[in-house]
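Let us work through a complete example step by step.
Step 1: write down the sequence.
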Amino acid sequence: MAPVEPIRTLIVDDEPLARRRLGQLLAAAPGYVVAGECSNGTEAVAWLEGEAGVDLVFLDVQMPDLSGLEVLQRVRGRSLPLVVFVTAYDQYTLQAFEARAIDYLLKPLDPDRFTACLAHARHMLDQRSAHQTRHHLTALLRAWPQQEPAPAPAPGADQFLLKHQGRLYFVKADQVLYLESKGNYVTLHTPGQQHLLRTTLSQLEGKLNSRVFLRIHRSVIVNSAYIKELRPWSHGEYLITLHDDTHLTSSRSYTQDIQRFLQRFAS
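Step 2: predict the structure and record it as tokens.
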């Protein structure tokens, strides 16, 4: 049996202590090797545009010359390795999604979280690349209206009766973008409005058309007709973007439900 090639990594961070810490954690991880280090974004661009390839980059978000996001923009036209953002601020999480990073780590680095990140990176490399996976899922979703139109809601679940300040009114199910549980209440999110129901998400789920409404989290059910894009994230989770650019995150408990849903549109 041929020996397994180690996963080559590049560390990019303007803080020497941060680079040293990443190097220590990688040195203790079987199957990983540090191929190089960069102390700023300009060095990182030169490294990534060079001939020596790497499989995985740990990329600091905030650097004095070029940010991590700007580094990726400079080399976007090339074949990029997998990217993990490293940051002291969790406000960059969504930008990490948008920049196609497979994960992000918060400083100071937690060893257990780092180990989970490496396991996820190895899985993504075994599945060829995060970009190909995302491209495949996006293609499936773009094709779905031509392959199988969403059926109408089942009888009895085509509208919701709500009460507000003494008046009763109806909201059609096909107008609901997603439902969000908050204690003993459920918020119906429609374009530009929110409506409150005194019930539980589990009680409503049994009345909804399961081929239209998809549960992605213990507290969220989404109307699949409004899904624009799904992006695989770490540990089996997905970032789900709706047509109004609302971002929702699934939980690992519902990964199989999402995958079964996507299988409907596979050729």
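Step 3: interpret the result. The chain is about 30% helix and 30% strand.
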